[in-house]
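note to self — DONT lose this again. spent like an hour looking for the file last time. sequence + predicted structure for the chain T wanted, 1125 res
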Amino acid sequence: MTGDGGYQPEFATNRSSTERVADAINTLLEGLRTRLINPPRLAIATAYFNPGGFNLLAEELEKAGGVRLLLGAEPLKAEDQPRVRALGETAPRRRRRGPSPDVTRALQGHRRSMEEDRDLLGFTREADAQARRLVAWLRNNPAVQVKRFEAGFLHGKAFIVETGVPGVIAGSSNFTYAGLAKNRELNLGQYQPSTVQQVIDWFDEQWDAAVPYDLAALYEARWLPHQPWDVFLRMLFELYGADLDEDTAVNSRLGLTAFQADGVWRAHRILARRKGVLIADEVGLGKTFVAGELIHEAVFDRRQKVLIIAPATLRDATWRPFLREKNLRAEVLSYEELVADIEDAGSRTARLQDLDEYAMVVVDEAHALRNSKTKRADALRQVLSGPVPKDLVLLTATPVNNSLEDLYNLIAYFTPNDAAFSDVGIPSLRAYFQRAIAMNPDDLSPEHLFDVLDEIAVRRTRRFVKNHYVHDTVVINGVTQQIQFPTCRVVRVDYDLDKALPGVFDDLAVALGAEVAEETLADTLAAGVILDEPGEVLTMARYVPSRFRRGGQTEQYEAQNAGLLRSNLLKRFESSSHAFEQTVTKMILSHDRFLDALNNGLVLTGDALREWAVSSTDDVEEWLESVDDTDGIASAADYDVNALTAAVQADRDLLEAFRIRVGALHPSTDPKVEALVEELAAIAREAADEGIGEQDTRNKRKVLIFTYFADTASYLDGALHNAITTDPRLAAYRNRMATVSGPDKANRSEAIIGFAPQTAGTGAEDDTYDLIVTTDVLAEGVNLQQARHIVNYDLPWNPMRLVQRHGRIDRIGSPHSAVYMRTFFPDKDLDKILRLEERLQRKLKQAAASVGVGEVLPGIDPVERNISETRDRIEQIRREEAALFNDEGNAALSGEEYRRRLANAFRTSATKGRVLGLPWGAGTGFQRPGADPGFVFCARIGDHPKPWYRYVPLNADLTLQASGPNGEPLIVDDTLACLAHADPQTDTTPAVLPEEMYSAAFDAWAAAQQHIHGKWMLQTDPANLAPQVPKVMRDASALVRQHGVFLGDDQDKLAARLNAPYTLRVQQEVRHILIAANSTDTDKIQALVALANQHGLTPPPPPPLRPVIDREDIHLLCWTVITPT
């Protein structure tokens, strides 16, 4: 409603789309501007302001003769103000000066509200243009002034024309979009000069008491180039900020270092949430002490029983002494003892108590359980079974050995339910891992698994400790020392494989199939037998008799055994002629027995062929010795005897020829032994030159010689004893050498203590050895850092084994500034050897695929899936690069590095203030050599506590990279990948944000926002959240519902417990129950009851449905652009 002039509104409100307060004000301002020579000056009083409100009046405000904008804080709401003071409270003191606490709080709230309005603008070109238009108006027009009234509350709202034809529109409307266009407001227009003058006087009075307020700076912060480090810290804060507010102090009773105590705190949180934790600190960082603190709390604080499972070496050399020293009561069993006693647990003769009495299970070197189908894996699952879940603590520095499946199997021990991580947006753990593996089956990096691993793993590296615990100390043998680690030096040792045995390797390569045509190898290897060139190429028929069974199919475990045996022959030949000869001799004897049986009308099948499938041994010798046991015999009438006999005889003759040729080599003429002697002589000489005193000299010449094979260790024992006796350069090692390779626990413990009494013992024992030849029985868990040198005598077929070995001497408490890792390479033949092994492995993989399963041989990883990565790591070692030993293997297992960087940065209050003061939508950028251009966005959805990260790569022309057949933009949602891209590494990385990249950010964010919206909306539909229950579990549940009435009230409970996704192992057990012959439905249901109780099957509660959202609910917090240099 307007007055007589037609441009002076007397009443203004917001009514749907027909009437707005903004329209009334614009009518007044335009009417005056068009009627006056000079544009009128304006004064505006308002509590709140936002660009949306400005945009409604911008056309007229930009043409005004000047504007005074007065902001202020409104009083607290009535319900927030105390009406009557409680008499028991202390009366407030009379203030001398300054605003009251209520006003101060209101002003703080006013600032937060202004910032919230700014943050909620959104990140679009339109919103950006609005904000820039506002700032330009504020900055470029001297006649525009802004103040804030801070002496009290400001409740009045008025839009005042000060010059020309005075007028005022006053009422309830704030200078916001809602106040001028949406809310049910009431405003009146007044144009009586006297009344308007009183309003102007009132405004002047408040204006004079107000202080200047930089409103432009509030909005400029959105597009100013912030420091990359600050933006990266904000991304970390959104993920880990809640941890900073928690008390992380651990009252250590075991004298832990600071970083170990922090690891205990993290493990506490994970155990409380998941009932299992993977402690994957790098070798040498004291995982035993972290686990020891958890054991102490269980035993002393909660009065619980603890079971420790460890390799026999660690049981005797590490855990039992540790428990005695720390006065901890816990049972320690080796893996072998666990398997042997599991069925008799709780009996008088068993070393295991009743399984339900254990509340915590600690498993050391847990990677030994990565194969889920071994007897030791079955035994652990049995220990963990029961109605009350046990805490499981898994210790391993190398959880990934052959494939990411290793990690899945370890997690599955305490997460039998496939939907257990639905609370963090992962409805299926199995599918999550399959997706990561499918990205690159040969890639062992767990970066695509970060969201799960950060939930269950504690992983710190040496570099992490060096960077973040600079002044941390440790007590070793009563002496407090600052934590430090030696530098790792990698040394390549070359030898000539062909020198002493000319042509033998080339002939062996032919025998193993190196020259068999690809199509022939692909067709025959799945059957395990190569019949292309008998007498020149080993057929392996003796180990795959099923290939010759009439009308039958080849047993796939036999085929895999044959393939693995081929690979093992190659590795033994490279190790030593003696190891190869011993294996060949056993194989010849096995062939003779097999042929004798054939002559008597029998075929030896032998359960040993199948038993290797469920063993945990890596030693083929043990298998070869048992393969001829007559526990499996078939009639030769069912086989093609002539073909089988011919193939076996041809192999036997070929093996005999190899045995004769390699048996002629004597250690004194073995070029590999000669190279080893030269290395030992050099080590002894360096120690004598560099050592300070007798003990330091002795420590500097201490050497561990590792080999994969006990036969090679035995061979070196004799060869080195002879060299030490006759070579004066090795005189320091005389009577100071030991060999450790077998099951002799007493000999092993005596050697460990005698070799490193200062670090493996108490320091009081005699120092009796400087040289130890050993297999990998000493590669795990023992503290041998008194030594300076390791020699890897074999080609590093499994580089992760070298990491374990390296961890024996590169540990906290090492007296050396540098340690040395020597590795032998048959330099001239290396490429041929690696190509042959790669061919064997790839054909094994093809054979596995040909029958449609990932593991043809139950219980054996049939293929080292990381073929290409293994080759790369071997080449690194060959180039004498130490990257493998300098920590970065599996560093992505958890976010410890990010947590610590955030915590350290926030110790500086200025840094914390800048980071937390960043406006939403804050952007930055930096340059990275060789990088693709791209954006990393960090967002939140409404008040949901989880941050969402997206990486959006760009093409060179700054368009979005496409993915898929329909050209959808490529969006990466892996948290670790996003953080890795956004990481500027240091706080000195300069900000680089080109204008064209800033412009490209809007389209990139729109794509990321749409991607986030789609992912969220998938979880608003119950059908998408329902776990995919395997058919076998549905069938079991249906059986209980149909025939389980005898269970009474437990019928529905059992059916619900079964109707959930569980691991493949549980599914297999259920399947065996359902298909069991001669079992009634009642029998099957009772077996299902027992199984459900044994495994503690409990379906997870259904994940809560997420509410439906709009894209506008997805708010951009900050972003970084990476540009190539």
